[in-house]
Design goal:
heterodimer, A: 394 residues, mainly alpha, 69% helix, 1% strand, B: 611 residues, alpha+beta, 5-stranded antiparallel beta sheet, 25 strands
Amino acid sequence: MVSTEFKVALGCIATRLAVMCLFPSLQQQLDKSVEFSTPVTSFRSLQEGIYLLRNNIQVYNHGVVHHPPILVLFLSLFDSDKLISIIYASLDGLIAYQLTKMTKVFKNLKVQSWLPGLLYAVNPLVLLSCVSRSSIIFTNFAISSSLYCILTEGNVILSSVMISVAGYLSFYPLLLLIPLLGMLKSWRQRMFSVIVSILSLLILLLFSYNMLGGESWSFLTQVYGSIISFQKVFPNLGLWWYFFIEMFDTFIPFFKAVFNIFIAAFITPFTLRYHKQPFYAFILCIGWIVLTKPYPSLGDAGFFFSFLPFFTPLFGYLRYPIISALLFLHAIVLAPIFYHLWVVLGSGNSNFFYAISLVYALALASILVDLNWAMLRIEYDNGVPNFKLKVTQI
Amino acid sequence: MIGSLAYCILGTLLVGAVAQDTTVPQIGVDDSLWYPYDETLLLKPLPNNDLLLSFTFQLQSEPFDPAVSSHSFDAYEYYTTFPRAIPPLLDSTATRQFHLRFTRGFWDALSWGQLPHGGKQAGASGVELWSLVQAADQEQAFQNWKKLANSLSGLFCSSLNFVDKSRTTFPRRSYASASASPLFNDTENLYLMRASLPNEPICTENLTPFIKLLPTRGHSGLTSLLDGHKLFDSLWNSISLDITTVCTENGDSLCHYEMEAHVDMATHVPSALARNERPIPKPLDGNSLRCDMDKPFDSYQCFPLPDPSETHLKLSQLFSKPIKNGNLFANRPTKICADVDRSTWTAHLSVDDTIYSTHDNCFELSNDQNESGSGYDFILESSDTTQVSPVDPVPIHVGRSLTGNGQDRGGIRTAFHNDNDTPVKLIYFESLPWFVRVYLSSLQITSTTSSHLHEDDIITDKYYLQAADRQRPAHLEFTMLIPAHSDIVMTYQFDKALLQFAEYPPDANHGFEIDAAVITVLSPESEEPVYETRTSTLLLSLSTPDFSMPYNVIILTSTIMGLIFGMLYNLMVKRIVTVDEADKIMLNSGLKYKLLKLKEKLLKTKQTKID
């Protein structure tokens, strides 16, 4: 008798492999689309890193590689294209597996335990992101593993280590350590978790340094510097790119700082405000980072949405789910069209795609705000839904 | 002021004295006083009625002792024919050599064969500069190089001052001819730097200062022919200037500078001559049309004949003026040679209506033969212009183009075509601006002629330096071996980064010029460079933002961010109450309540006043 988790995970892997086999050119197509690939997560940049590493050319001497050294080293071990497909598919399968396992932890959740996993498996955003071989899947896997470790096994060490790994892979998930601390029971555990995270991060960085040999610390600026200071201006669905193209030179450093502070702005407030629902706070933080990060892709959003089925009790309180959903659909349908109009046909200009990135930000924001409201409302009702009651905030 | 006046008067007196003394046979002019200057012109008819004119000028500076710094108290400078502007420039930038190229046009290698001088004097389209600078480290070398470029920019009225870090490369094996040069200081190294401005328009402004560097300054000798209108009207033209430091190895260790300057042009003779007859390009009238009578011909139809194959070409027609004189002061006379097929071509020199010819078609213009001042003229005659002396076949044909559609990504495709019976070994040098984000992993070598091909067999050595944003260009240098009788195609892909809106040039939608690739063909035995050629430059279009939008974008994005922040902040800090409770609270503390209170207060005071 195979357990549900395995079925879900196998289903997930099977769908991905099937799509990869049926549409072999889809990977390159998606890797070129701005929605699924960014300069810091694209597979072709990862391939470039592998190529440079194999040819003994300095990998992080500027250039196009923004992936962390260990990831490049790890993938350079695999020569065959099929093997890499299998790695990506099985990582997604593992995430689906973990989601299913996590569902089982929440005993009073009235959804079928296979539902979140299944939704993850068929979610087109995640599916296409996996097919595009965006390296964001490694970060997602690390975040999901961290949650999995702390929820199902209460394993503080592994959970903290996985947060460090996620931070090592794409920097901003490091902020998720704060909501993770919220999920821990005692201050001793929290101290312990912080120390473990810092230590594991240091080990990862030192290992990377050691691995690159003569290249010293150049990978830090190339991997993290380019993320934090948004060095590679390339269109994406985020708020950053057009703002910094059009910004006046003198103000750029100032606004880069502002945007970075903006990312960190709501992490601690969420953790503190929802300290009774730390898992919820954690997911809100993921959503917030997806909204504000410099190089977002639809793979991030898809990962965030995969956790929404955990909050089915809140759904009754949502004030404008239809509007949020329509805004989001509007954005993801029009984004490729407007991008094509601007870049390929030349019949539209950059403002078209910029407008869509604003709509996308609004859609994510309305989802976040609505979720917040719903949680506040259910707190007010003490967990016993009373939809009739009209409440307001003063 | 007074000094210069005195100088002028003295000058006139001297000239007067010389003019009076014409009968005296060259008193006091010792052979050793003739200056080291050499000028030659080579004319070579090319197929299709084209003509290659190659001017060569060579001169040397006075020897100097490199050990004595020019800043030292005892130092003195002594210039004869060598341009006064150059040595201080070389001295202050510690430059051992520099090579400057101004090139425009298309060299039709398929019909014209090899570039003149083995391609070593022809640059990439636009301006190209490379130099060998002596410095303690790379940073200092770059500073010197920047100074050199700025000075040359002023000297030649070109945009070389735009040469900066993002355009400078340090070639490794290309430009190898520039590598041998002495060191005066063991602790310092020589740095070879190279930059090119592909979108530089080459015009008279660049030619005039160039002529001023030469001792004849356009007044006599071959430089009197050089005229911007004629030179830049050609199909292909190239101006080159090479300055090198040459030192003698033996005991006294004296050095001197050598300057070699070339002006090469390939011109289509019939159209150049037609320009003289009809300066305004009007249509010909019916009588002067050359029609093919074998084909239908009436007042409405005319099938044009090819250009006539007989020609009688005078150099004075081509340049609208004769050669004024010999060079007047050099140790060797001005020389004009014609490289023609002797069966159908003849070359003559005409002086004062007298026509001379020689057995090797080379003529020396002496200084004293031409007394009437009518100048020298050179005449090329041919009964069949299709017969020209054979052109040297090009060792390799290279074509480069951009691939891909869309303004966010693209690729570069370089096709090598080797016609010879032997494989060709070459160095492929390419420098790409930083906003071209190259993926070397996408490098592919394909061939249309052979299916079994290994990348490593074609590219034997690979050097790649990634671009750094706004700091340095991408630098590729491949040693390649192109097999005999084969077509090899090399492709790779790149992304195009967006620039900040102020970094776009005023005509952003025109596109960005990309440097030509430099191909140095090596001799199979000695690995010495035997031929150099450059591909055409490329025009890359980047996607552009809307330049009218900065304020709108700042406002809109900030609004969205403010909106999100505000909504979340409100949710987090405010208290939740039922609507009824809220109404009650508002009744006692809201804005309406306060207004009401205020109104009451005002009314009350009014009431009391009335009372």
